[in-house]
Amino acid sequence: MRTHIVWDWNGTLFHDMEAVLGASNAAFASVGIGPMTMQEYREQYEIPIPRFYQRLLGRLPSEAEWLLLDDAFHVRYRELSAACGLTEGVLELLADWRAAGHSQSLLSMYEHEKLVPIVDGFGLTGHFLRVDGRSGPSGGQKAEHLTRHLAALGEHVDPARTVLIGDAADDALAALHAGAHAVLYTGGSHTREKLEPVGVPVVDSLAEAVELAGRIAG
Predict the structure, then answer these.
(1) Are the C-beta atoms of 207 and 93 separated by less than 8 Å?
(2) Could you read off the pLDDT of 69-84 as tens digits, one per residue?
(3) In this predicted structure, what is the pLDDT of residue 99?
(4) CATH entry 1.10.1660.10 includes domain 4-15+85-217
């Protein structure tokens, strides 16, 4: 059985943190919260996202507030993310992993119908056994999505030889839930200080993450 990587998209393969910050500040403004710097955002961000807003508001957002926040975020994110590109070295890492005889797939909490054309537009689709985005409401956690993703990959992938590479503590929790491994990357939504308490390897580059994945599950 080959070693398999499940890649996260936003903040991992897709270098979109400037768009995420701009969209988040637009969402904050819709409910009277002041803007954040990138460092403040990365120190405060949390999944599930309503808990992040609870921290900022001092209470859970109402259903109406959540819809307002979510809509404001996604409208502005679509505008800003068009200017974003891939994280440095992604094309080479994906091609080299595939050429070495391993497999990989993509699982994102970004809406599936919006994710697929973006991934395809970067010419990445052929590198993956499967590309899955979120179905259902936004703001949730990745664990059940990963379980379904691995089940859909079937006998081609062994969870025990699978490593999820992502930028959020929730990625690691999802991997542990599914019986897989995780490596977390510091270039996205969380600071190293937020990632290390999860107890999985934390790295500063995707090249390091891939090298570790080969050793952990090889």
Answers:
(1) yes
(2) 999 999 999 999 999 9
(3) 95
(4) no
Distances (CA, A) of 104 to 107, 118, 216: 10, 18, 15
19 contact partners, CB below 8 Å, separation of at least 6:
77, 80, 81, 83, 84
- pLDDT, the chain, mean: 94
Q: How many CB atoms lie within 10 A of CB 88?
A: 13
Q: Spell out the residues 6+ positions from residue 189 whose beta carbon is closer than 8 angstroms to its own.
A: 10, 11, 17, 20, 41, 42, 45, 167, 168
Q: Is the dihedral of CA 12, 133, 216, 156 positive or negative?
A: negative
CB 35 within 8 A of CB 29: yes
Helix residue ranges per DSSP H, the chain: 17-30, 38-44, 49-57, 63-81, 90-99, 112-121, 143-153, 169-178, 192-195, 206-217
Confidence (pLDDT) at 217: 76
Residue with tokens 């930028």: 167
Residue pair 9/121 in contact by the 8 Å Cβ criterion: no
Asked if 182 and 166 count as a contact pair (C-beta separation under 8 A), the reply is: yes
DSSP 8-state class, residue 129:
S
Q: What pLDDT, on the 0 to 100 scale, is given for residue 1?
A: 60
pTM of the entire structure?
Answer: 0.94
User: How far is the C-alpha of 119 from the C-alpha of 114, rounded, in Å?
Assistant: 9
pLDDT tens, 98-131?
Answer: 999 999 999 999 999 999 999 999 999 999 999 9
